[in-house]
Design goal:
With 337 residues, this protein is mostly helical. It is built from 12 helices and 2 strands. The chain has helices spanning 2-12, 21-53, 64-93, 110-134, 147-173, 175-184, 186-199, 209-229, 233-249, 274-277, 287-302, 310-315, and strands at 138-142, 266-270.
Length: 337
């Protein structure tokens, strides 16, 4: 019995006396799915009540795209909220850390990381598109769109895609990623989460072997961004600007998704060879994106532009909640770098 108890304890607990990372990761995802299911059910119930009362107008065909955009925004918002709540529960109850430790603390230099990351992500997708266009694998035409409309659509997509990017970063490179880093090491953590990140896109329209490899490579790109800063601001900015510029500027599909094409400034089209442009899947399905993301990953890994702040190094230590306040704002700071 003692041997059985010792074996069970060894399976569940690591040498530091904590849950092994597999159980911490499992706890996070179970918590997330339970919370998300509850929030989605509550939202659907509320919608049905409002619809039955006649207070919610039925959308016409002309504004169906707006309704679809609202639905996507609500869905991604619920998922982000669920991921944040699960992160709070797991960080506090399992590792005795604050929510800030999972990546979105307004640490010294966070706004700089976000701004530089956003510019770098935009340049990276521009490089991918430029490489494909240079060999005739992409074609663009200017859409006739009013300046006010273009500005409005930019703002709408900025918010929608920021919510989506933030959710994916918390879900893939938040608490679970950090648990893997502590027990399995950074290389294994990046490899595992990159495979998971690629798997999440397998069902997208037009996915291929190359698009899956590129998505895994993007997981490495974003994982390296976290490791350099120990926060999610840089990774979120890279992820967000890549998607936003690809959609709003170039009018290209994002991982096979074309829902936002009518809001773009340019009308982009991937041509042959598809292995260069990505075709109907978008740039992420082509070798041009492989080259651009690889170069950006190397730049981030080798550059001295980014580094982890002392606040984030301290925040990620298990048990740090015992010595920290729950505030995510840095001391003696005006919330800017």
């Amino acid at each position: 019995m003692n041997d059985a108890s010792a074996l069970a304890s060894n399976v569940l607990i690591n040498k530091e006396g904590e849950w092994r990372c597999v159980w911490r990761v499992l706890a996070f995802y179970i918590s997330f799915f339970l919370i998300a299911s509850l929030l989605v059910a509550l939202t659907q119930t509320l919608r049905e009540i409002i619809t039955q009362s006649g207070d919610l107008p039925v959308p016409s065909e002309t504004d169906s795209s707006s309704s679809n955009l609202i639905a996507i925004t609500v869905e991604r918002s619920l998922l982000l909220i669920s991921a944040i709540i699960a992160s709070v529960l797991c960080a506090r109850m399992i590792e005795r850390r604050t929510l800030a430790s999972t990546g979105y603390k307004l640490h010294d230099g966070w706004s700089r990381d976000f701004a530089l990351g956003w510019a770098l992500g935009a340049l990276t997708i521009a490089l991918a598109v430029g490489l494909a266009a240079a060999v005739g694998a992409m074609n663009f035409s200017l859409r006739q769109i009013a300046v006010a409309t273009a500005a409005r659509d930019f703002f709408i997509l900025f918010v929608v895609l920021l919510i989506a990017a933030a959710f994916e970063e918390v879900f893939v490179r938040g608490f679970a990623f950090q648990a893997l880093i502590r027990d399995a090491g950074p290389v294994a953590a990046v490899a595992i989460t990159s495979v998971v990140f690629a798997a999440l896109h397998l069902a997208n329209t037009g996915s291929s072997i190359l698009s899956t490899v590129n998505t895994a490579l993007a997981g490495v790109w974003l994982g390296v961004a976290y490791l350099k800063t120990r926060s999610l601001w840089l990774a979120t900015a890279l992820h967000h600007s890549w998607n936003l510029v690809m959609v709003i500027v170039f009018g290209l599909p994002v991982s096979g998704i074309v829902d936002y094409k009518n809001m773009a400034w340019l009308d982009g089209e991937g041509l042959a060879p598809v292995w260069v442009s990505g075709g109907s899947y978008g740039p992420e399905g082509g070798i041009a994106a492989t080259i651009a993301v690889t170069l950006c990953t190397l730049l981030i890994a080798r550059s001295r532009l980014f580094k982890a702040s002392d606040e984030m190094r301290a925040a990620i230590i298990p048990g740090s909640a015992a010595t920290q306040t729950m505030s995510i704002f840095p001391k003696n700071s005006s919330h800017t770098s």
